[in-house]
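Sample 1 of the test manifest.
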Amino acid sequence: MTRLTGIALLGAGRMGQVHAAAMAAAGARLVAVYDPVTRVADALASRTGAAVAPSAAAAIHHAGVDAVVIATSSDTHVELVIEAVNAGKPVLCEKPLASSLAATRRCIAAIGDQAARQVFLGFNRRFDRGHAGLREAVHAGDIGRLEQLTITSRDPLPPPLEYVPRSGGLFRDMMIHDFDMARGILRQELVSVTAHGSSIVDPEIGKLGDIDTASVTLLAEDGAIVTILNSRRCAFGFDQRIEAFGADGMVVSDNPRQSGLTRYRPGYPGTPAPILEFFMERYGESYAAEIRLFLDCAREGRDMPVNAYDGLMAAYLAEAATLSLKLGKTIHLTGPDQEFDHV
Amino acid sequence: MTRLTGIALLGAGRMGQVHAAAMAAAGARLVAVYDPVTRVADALASRTGAAVAPSAAAAIHHAGVDAVVIATSSDTHVELVIEAVNAGKPVLCEKPLASSLAATRRCIAAIGDQAARQVFLGFNRRFDRGHAGLREAVHAGDIGRLEQLTITSRDPLPPPLEYVPRSGGLFRDMMIHDFDMARGILRQELVSVTAHGSSIVDPEIGKLGDIDTASVTLLAEDGAIVTILNSRRCAFGFDQRIEAFGADGMVVSDNPRQSGLTRYRPGYPGTPAPILEFFMERYGESYAAEIRLFLDCAREGRDMPVNAYDGLMAAYLAEAATLSLKLGKTIHLTGPDQEFDHV
Amino acid sequence: MTRLTGIALLGAGRMGQVHAAAMAAAGARLVAVYDPVTRVADALASRTGAAVAPSAAAAIHHAGVDAVVIATSSDTHVELVIEAVNAGKPVLCEKPLASSLAATRRCIAAIGDQAARQVFLGFNRRFDRGHAGLREAVHAGDIGRLEQLTITSRDPLPPPLEYVPRSGGLFRDMMIHDFDMARGILRQELVSVTAHGSSIVDPEIGKLGDIDTASVTLLAEDGAIVTILNSRRCAFGFDQRIEAFGADGMVVSDNPRQSGLTRYRPGYPGTPAPILEFFMERYGESYAAEIRLFLDCAREGRDMPVNAYDGLMAAYLAEAATLSLKLGKTIHLTGPDQEFDHV
Amino acid sequence: MTRLTGIALLGAGRMGQVHAAAMAAAGARLVAVYDPVTRVADALASRTGAAVAPSAAAAIHHAGVDAVVIATSSDTHVELVIEAVNAGKPVLCEKPLASSLAATRRCIAAIGDQAARQVFLGFNRRFDRGHAGLREAVHAGDIGRLEQLTITSRDPLPPPLEYVPRSGGLFRDMMIHDFDMARGILRQELVSVTAHGSSIVDPEIGKLGDIDTASVTLLAEDGAIVTILNSRRCAFGFDQRIEAFGADGMVVSDNPRQSGLTRYRPGYPGTPAPILEFFMERYGESYAAEIRLFLDCAREGRDMPVNAYDGLMAAYLAEAATLSLKLGKTIHLTGPDQEFDHV
């Protein structure tokens, strides 16, 4: 069987352009592009030689399209995933799969279990070289049984205030990546979620009902403890680290540096180069790895390693954390298909 | 007023010997030593030229004794502190001040508020060079407002199983250091404690009713979030780190290395020297700094920077964490003089 | 004036393919490719959509070709540079410009002084992010007056033995990069060269009249001392470091790591990820930066920042080092246009 | 045989006080102290409980003196070493053994070969934890055959100008430590010395006929190449590093840090704690290790691991480097007992 390479891209905004660059780097070919704002689609098409499609459906069914990448606004994801699945095309959808936990459940029900496992969900951070190396080291048993997992994730700057009300809140909008990361490393059921949060970076965020500083503790079935620390602002860059501690050792994925340059000055005796600034610098490479893996799995008909069910579970954990913070209680997890006991 | 230097040491066991070495390094002089096991006192006296006293009281009142260091078994601390206070001698007492929160309250009541502030309590880790540097940096405003404080504290090996039942449990026996460290850095009231724990290092510890792996979240009055991670076993040494994250930056006290030696071999390309093995290697220096500070404060009649009230507060937090784990609930803090609401 | 982007590539072997990939990453377009081995040119053309030219001259004059990149075998460089210069096309030539110092002089004489300054010579390591950052820091005065410059350059493995006799020797084949690096950082005249060398990596290399381990000391006009260390074999990867020490501080360009992953195991307490393996991993990025700079300078008609005169000077230093080793003497430098005194 | 512990200290100035502190830390006892300036001897005696001796000879023969430590001015070393040797007491002499190469030869002739091997010469840097670890790793074969050894040694500040004329010059006064370090690591004959030097830190040093910036290349019998870099001034502290590169890997002794504290601020993203300031901070510990080793060897009647012959060889290398710089030539080494060919 030959390699799949012809891709339809739905959405040519910032994330769409990221995916377009990743395709080029991964050796895939952008065949058709659709964006509700024609000018945006045109611009990308002219740079890449892709055709501009008049509709998402037209892009999906365009000649030479082997696979579909969805990077439109979040509220259109479910509809487009269903369209692509019905067209029999492998699909990679930007996260989130749907705008709520209930909508995610409904999307999975609509496409069915098997298709759900074959929708690649864009948790690209799994494919960061350092984070992936950590996960592989844990799975290979390099640190023995995993006992404590600590994920630190801090953005350089808070989002614009006007975005806050429609973000769904920090747990759904930001920590969702870390919930997925924890699940990918742990590979076992989680039994409880306890959330703490504050609005100390910017009190305006608090007035809008959200938090900007958070800590969540997850307890795994076997007793392993996961700690996730988030902040919406970090003075020294994009702080993205994971520490996995186990019976036989520890493995840490630290912030890579912009270069190997180190400065020695009085008072600054050995200052390394800055860490990477934001997600494109830090995770840019991971998008290309994601596309490669997506196309490989699609070609072989395998389940996607990160699929709609992972989207469901991450949404479920975000929901539970939101509830925990609201109630000031630990939430015991009974599965994404059931209502929460505590409400 | 001349510098105080003549010291009576009560207890010549392991901790007593640590203090004796620290005195020598600090330029203080061991004048009298008492230990219920005469052979142990004799051994230390013969190495240092100190007199062996027939009783604790005799040591306290021995000629040339300016100050008293208590390193006897925990259950004798209250009685000896009272004896030394009554003798008008400045006293440094190994932690814990008393064997329970209630006993700590009673001890403070017995000696009175002013004396309580002049009993130096041996939370020596505060004087570790890296940890002290972090605290000073935070207090100096180097990182702006403190938002997230993360303390990792892992012992190389669990204590002997027979010690577990009389240890008071991980929170009172081990995390007590970290509670004190958090308070020293934060300098503000804490409003809640949430504890999680597992027994995954050694199930036998679980059978004895204790845990060996723990995570505690403390919420400060202003919204800062403290996370403390403990493990009773660490494969690569004595893991003792603090990370203080604030509005303007971050400061980290990492594990120092045994030397500046780094090895490059295929597969191990740049392996630094090991971290320090256990508390004597890591915190040995801090005991000498502690003694120096104790004698300086005593000479000037100042309140001790770490005193009986700090012992009370650390005991209170340990009590709250123990209760939080037992109940599976967040404990809201109302002060060490009141009973917990949730019991 | 519009940006130049259409490129003719002469030579489609390993280095040609490196340049082709760099062009794509830099946003330039490969228009025509020539290689004496047609199969090799065909393969690259089919991957990139470029036309295959029947001769180097045909490629240079192909429609849409704005600039020429030469990556053929070293003995053809002079002829092709002259051809491209005569065609009025900006040219980037892989190092070395010519096979000997005398041939380099003749090439420059043939094209004339002005053209010589507009031939970009492919000392790509200058554009490595860390090395370039070090150079800029030194030029910006960050370390004050430069006093000691130390360049360490070690290959993972020696070249095949059959390559050794036609390599020109370690100084001309390998250290030539470091001579150029030193000149780019120093920006002043060098007054002497003293070389030491051994054949201890592989005695067979010694039997062929070459060395595999070398140290060269260069003295600059103002007294700054440059030390270059080379080895043909390095057990832990491609060791490429620079240390610039000055009156006010030091700046070091260290080996970057494959990722931010660090492992803690008993005996390996904090082992970072491996360094990059060889030149494509370490310097891959620098080729794209080189192409971008070449096209920018060409468009603006500026002298190339690394040009035929830099090739001449590096060849001159390599010649002097070779002579110094042979004679066991320091060689005093009088300029690349004069014969060496000591022969 | 019991452990030797009673020590006579000749010279109670700065170095004498360093040795006195080292004795205490090593568990040895200062019995008698002599200094031509009585006040200085008195001060040290009153702090330590030692007796003040009216002369060096009286100190050497004082009751309870098992061993002699010489820390008087350099011009008295020979005479005092002979006195101590004649008294049959083991002796540790501060470097240099004598004020010139010829005087060193005469001293060894005077005491004889066997005694010369039992005079411990105070090259204390050999006992620095990092440097000693490097030496042991090399000797244990951890890096395979040693091929390149690079020693960097930079003082924080130049000595007072008035000291320069009587210092003997940088090679004899400062690099002598590095010559000894190189010999201790290499354990084989050196065949040539090539020196380069400049006066760019302070031109006044140049006017006094000395240099402040130097590079020396030593060639070992088996082809290993040693590079020593010295500077009289370092803006960021006391820069003391060694890099040993071999067939199977590399081991580096880097500057230890004052603590494990690291600061992250915009522009200074991960600045470690300062390196140690000068020799007492960096090498303080090594003096205690030196005394311990001296007493152990003396008790067992073993040859000292660093003895008068090591002093002779270091002086010989310093002499050769001085001559190399003067003549601008490589000096071929024929042994410390012969005149140099090139003069």
